[in-house]
Amino acid sequence: MQTGSSFNQDWLQNWQAKIAIRITSIILWTLSFISMVVAGILISQVRDNVERSQNIILDHLAYQIYQKTQQKPSFTFDDLRPILDHVIGHEYISAVSMEYAGTKKSYGQKEDNFQQISRTIFIPDPLTITTYTTPIDEIVRSKQIEIFMLFSTGIILLGGFIGLVIDKSVKKPFHHLESVAQQYTSGKHSVRANTDRHDEFGTLALFLNQMLDRISVNEQKLQNEVNEKTIAHEKIKQQRDALQQLTSELTQARDLANDANEAKTIFLANMSHELRTPLNAVIGYSELIKEAPENRNNQALMDDIDRILMAGKHLLRLINQVLDISKIETGKTELVIEAVPVKSLIQDIFNTLKPAFEKNNNRLKLNIESHIDVIYTDPTRIKQIFFNLLDNANKFTHNGDVELHMQTRNQQLIVSIKDSGIGIEPGQLKHIFDEFVQADTSTTRRYGGTGLGLSICRHLIQLMGGEINVSSTPGQGSIFTISIPLIQNKDQGAL
Amino acid sequence: MIHILIVEDNDMNREMIRRRLELHSFDISMANDGQQAIDMAISGQPDIILMDMSLPIVDGWQATRKLKSLDETKHIPIVGLSAYASKADVKKGIDAGCDAYEVKPIDFERLLKTINQLSPE
Q1: Bridge partners, residue B48, by sequence
Q2: Where are any strands of DSSP class E within B10-107?
Q3: What is the SS3 assignment for A377?
Q4: What local confidence, expressed as pLDDT, does residue B111 receive?
Q5: Looking at beta carbons, which residues of chain B come within 8 Å of A328?
Q6: What are the pLDDT digits (tens) for A116-135?
Q7: CA dist A437 to A382, A396, A432, A463, A470, Å?
Q8: Quick check: A328 contacting B, CB < 8 Å?
Q9: Which residues of B touch A265 (CB under 8 A)?
């Protein structure tokens, strides 16, 4: 800003000076030209004038001398002296000589190079009067110098006068406008130019004022906008800070949650290990007692041992399922996709479950669409799902039917498992897939189970990109329907 | 008679496995820790080793690696037998050199099958 304003100042001053000089010099050049012409004319006439004036003086002198000689015919040269005295010393005449009747007398001082002009009058004898003047060239030169000096002085004086006038009429209003502009630039925004003048400067001042008004308004607008933007910016900054704060808090919370989750996973893994060791002893010793030949005939002991074994195996299943849930929830479960021959898979499951079905006197009907052969899925997980659902269906059904229906529709594998068992109360249906939920607590007592099986099933099915639904009529049975997107090959499963 | 070395630090479990295997006519010797297992394997030359993993002094993974690196013992099949039951744990055991890996609580029938598969005759 500082350099800019000083630059403006210099520029203004230079410009102003130039204008003044230019106007003055134009006028002076014009005057000089006219003066030169006039002076030239005057100078060119100097010689004629001098010659003429000398001749006139001489004629006049001759006439006066003539008159004197007429008044006093017996004159002497000294009688004529007073007349000569009037002439000597004027118009470059420094001496006058007279010659009459063989007598010659000179008055004044004369030099050799002096120019001589003579007149002869007859009274009746000839009287020759001769004037001695400075040579005419010298006179002309000196006259010319005189004229030149006169014009020069005139021009200089005129120039000064014009400069003064310009200074008054041009420089002053310029200076005023400049000062206004400068003051405005340096921050005094209330300053305005004086508009009293009725010339162009008055108009210029008016326009300058209008311009300054407009700049002030625009500046105010701009300032307001800047203020608004600053406030907005401040708000954004605050919001950003708040957001950052929130993000960092969330990150902390997430880290804490992750740590907690990690701790939970580690805890569960350790718990699993620590529970398995005594459970190994419980199951192992129970089986040992069962196997010991001396106990084989003690039926009551065998029944008790079976109960211990059942409880031990239930506990083992619980441990496995808790671990499963934990792994699924922490996203640590990965599917290993393989080609699975689905019919033989179902057959395997059924073989395992056959004793349980026979115990409850249930029939299993398989209805698998004939074209279904190999599907690409995780064999362990799909087995776990089917096993769980069929086991459940059998568990809650007595002397009835369990039907497995498998079909493909729209690139989906759709499997429904229908039983004719006790069914589920409508109020319980929506909670059936939640962890540790069975239809009611008495069910657990009557039918066993962990309350984790269906939850794991749903998690695994979701992991496969599918869904599971249930519908049920209490007293008539339930239908669980799974639909899983069909994978065309092994690689696709990696997606 | 097949000679089995049971390596197990838990007295109760070691005793249970011994008694159950003896019912199936195996010749049993027992070690309480990994170092003892290595010593006994070298001196006793068992037909098969059942190796717990969480053991004092030298753990099961170290002992397995050691046994598989020694000329005198590297031919002896080792069955990992541990309450570390996840897939990752199984892999860790196999990576250490176990020929098979069974989780606790023991599925005894499976264990018998595995023993029969791995033993020399």
Answers
A1: B4
A2: 27-31, 48-51, 78-82, 100-103
A3: strand
A4: 92
A5: none
A6: 888 888 877 888 888 888 88
A7: 22, 15, 6, 21, 15
A8: no
A9: none
DSSP letter assigned to residue A80: G
Q: Are A433 and A454 in contact (CB under 8 A)?
A: yes
pLDDT digits (tens, 9 = 90+) for A321-348: 888 887 777 777 778 888 889 888 888 8
Predicted confidence (pLDDT) per residue in B48-75, tens digit: 999 999 898 999 999 999 999 999 999 9
Residue A276 is nearest to which of B19, B20, B85, comparing CB atoms? B85
Give me A367's structure tokens.
């209805």
Query: With bands split at pLDDT 50, 70 and 90, how would you rate the model's confidence at A14?
Result: low
- Which tokens belong to A440? 């009611």
C-alpha A333/C-alpha A482 separation (Å) is 20
Contact present, B79 and B107 (Cβ < 8 Å) = no
Q: Which of B102, B13, B109, B30 is nearest to A285 (CA)?
A: B13
- Best residue in A268, A276, A295 for a mutation probing chain B (most B CBs within 10 Å): A276
Reported as a single tens digit per residue, the pLDDT across A255-274 is 998 888 788 878 888 888 88
Task: Name A368's bridge partners.
Answer: A406
In the structure, what pLDDT confidence band is assigned to residue A10 with cuts at 50, 70 and 90? Answer: low
What is the spatial distance between Cα A169 and Cα A436, in angstroms, rounded to a whole number? Answer: 105
> Are β-strands A338-341 and A374-377 bridged in parallel, bridged antiparallel, or unpaired?
antiparallel
Contact A357/A391 with Cβ under 8 angstroms?
Answer: no
Specify whether the CB–CB gap between A485 and A439 falls below 8 A: no
> A127: left (phi > 0), else alpha (psi -120 to 50), else beta?
beta
Pairing between strand B48-51 and B78-82?
parallel
Higher-scoring residue by pLDDT: B93, A438: B93
Nearest to A359 by CA among A472, A471, A448: A448
How close does chain B come to A330, measured CA to CA in Å? 15
pLDDT of residue A494: 40
Give the per-residue pLDDT at A427. 81
In one-letter notation, the amino acid at residue B23 is L
Nearest chain A residue (CA) to B83: A273
**Which two tokens mark A120?**
């002869």
pLDDT at A239: 93
Q: What is the SS3 assignment for A336? A: coil
In the chain, the amino acid numbered A50 is V
d(CA A443, CA A454): 15
Contacts of A411 (CB under 8 A, 6+ apart): A485, A486
Which residues lie closer than 8 Å to B98 by C-beta, 6 or more apart?
A: B51, B64, B78, B79, B80
Q: Which residues of B64-101 are buried (b: 16+ CB within 10 A; e: fewer)?
A: bebbbeeeebeebbbbbbbbbbeeebbebbeebbbbbb
pLDDT digit string, tens, across residues A197-209: 888 888 888 888 8
Structure tokens at A464: 């496969």
Distance CA A253, CA A247 (A): 9
Within an 8 Å CB–CB cutoff, is residue A271 touching chain B? no
Which chain B residue has its CA at the smallest distance from A277's CA?
A: B83
CB contact A292 to B (< 8 Å)? yes
| CA-based nearest distance B71→chain A, Å | 33
Tokens coding A339: 């080609």
Q: Which residue has the higher pLDDT, A430 or A463?
A: A463
